[in-house]
Amino acid sequence: xxxxxxxxxxxxxxxxxxxxxxxxxxxxxxxxxxxxxxxxxxxxxxxxxxxxx
Length: 53
Known about the structure:
Blueprint: E1 2-3, E2 13-16, E3 31-34, E4 50-51
Antiparallel strand pairs: 1-4, 2-3
């Protein structure tokens, strides 16, 4: 799994576990943690795209 990076992100993302293998029909939980940047203007946002391949 990875997070698509555009090169100007100000909020780091951590994925735990960083890697896993699933069997067909299997599911597992992950933790996606985003460190908020309090310097972003009110109403501002960053798009985060999580890809699982």
